[in-house]
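Appendix B. Chain record.
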Amino acid sequence: MQKLKISHENLAGKVDHNSDLINALRADLDKLADAFAKFDSPSRGEFDLLKNRVDALENQLAMFKK
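Structure tokens predicted for this chain:
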């Protein structure tokens, strides 16, 4: 019974340690998300709009060359 108690205590300690590591990783991930949010980059919709405009201009240039 004593071995079972020691094993349980060891497991509980490992679970607590892993919980601490998970919380640290979550905090780091939140910091990365905040840093990424500060970048001044276009949204996906803005990027797609610009891509479509570039494609349209390339097609018009190709027609002028013909």
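Further analysis of this model is presented in Appendix C.
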